Amino acid sequence: MERYLLKDRQAKGKKDPYTILSQSALDVLQKYIEQHPPQKWLFPGQAEEKHITERMVQKVFEQALLQSNLQKKASLHTLRHSIATHLLGQARTCVTFRNF
C-alpha cells in the first residue's frame, strides 16, 4: 500500500499529526480542492474565517451513516479503530500507526 499523508496542523493538543489517505480518498480530496480552493481552511466552518467544528463533522458522518442503511452502530472513533485494524492486517507495527 502506498501511503498518502495529510498533515493536520494544530490539531488537538497543539500537535501536528498525519492522517493516512487511500488513493481513492486522495482522488476525492483533490477533486474537492479543485472545486473549493482553500482560502484559510481546507474545510471551513459556517463562518469562512473559522474551521469546521468536530461536532459538524460528527453530524455529517451520522447523516452519511443513515443514508448508507448500515445496521451497525458506528462513530468517527469506529473509523479510527478500523484503520488500526486494517494496518495490523497488513503486518504494520504499532509504531507505524501510533503517530497517526
TrEMBL record:
This is Integrase family protein. The keyword Glycosyltransferase does not apply. It comes from Paenibacillus lactis 154. Gene3D superfamilies: Intergrase catalytic core. Keywords: DNA recombination. Residues 1-100 form the Tyr recombinase domain. The keyword RNA-binding does not apply. One of its GO terms (molecular function) is DNA binding. One of its GO terms (biological process) is DNA integration. It comes from the Bacteria.
